[in-house]
Amino acid sequence: MHTEVFSELFPLLSTANPQTLEWLLNVAIEHEYPAERAVLMEDAWGNAVYFVVSGWVKVRRTSGDNSVALAILGRGDFFGEMAVLDESPRSTDVIALSPVKLLSVSRERFIQILFKDPHLHHRMLQLMVRRVRQINLRLQMRSSPPAVKLAQTLVSLGENYGQKSEKGREIFNIPVKDLAEVTEISVEETSKIMDKLDEKGWIEIDDINNIIYLVNFKQLINLAGKV
Questions:
Q1: How distant, in Å, are the alpha carbons of 49, 204, 223 from that of 9?
Q2: What is the pTM of this model?
Q3: Which domains does the chain have, with CATH numbers?
């Protein structure tokens, strides 16, 4: 992977200097996982920062045999940075929703890079603040109608990870249970709303290729209250 492609793929690295990008590529380790494979167990947080080159993963909270999806991440995102910085234990793991390719940078290397490149340091702080804002938005929307909350989830996934196509932005066909848990509504509500959005022509679900097309993105944004 060339440094220009690396920088364009990951917003975190958009302001990093060329030397930083070259060094990152040299020390990064490549990983490939099939769907449903654990890519990061709860006892491994803090060892490295992971970059999603392709595919989709979910971060889930575990408690015994029970688990709840907390976030869906796609191409161009990263995870593990908080555990690297605060070194606190995590009761979460990361599972591949689709075949996924990752790059990992060890804790020691990543911290070295942050000290060497203040632009990267500042950019990471910006993205971490953005994540806090997204969490605050979810808290504010807890009392919103289920359809509004689900539209907000779809819009967020489309904005962050959606790929342009002739049918609109396309995202992975996320399992209904995971979509419901991330949105904090019931599985039954999620299924009904997705069917209704499909009937309206706002989305199109391609079960064969595991794709959801966000056909009428403008209407989804309006429904989410992002006008």
A1: 16, 26, 29
A2: 0.89
A3: 3-139 (2.60.120.10), 144-223 (1.10.10.10)
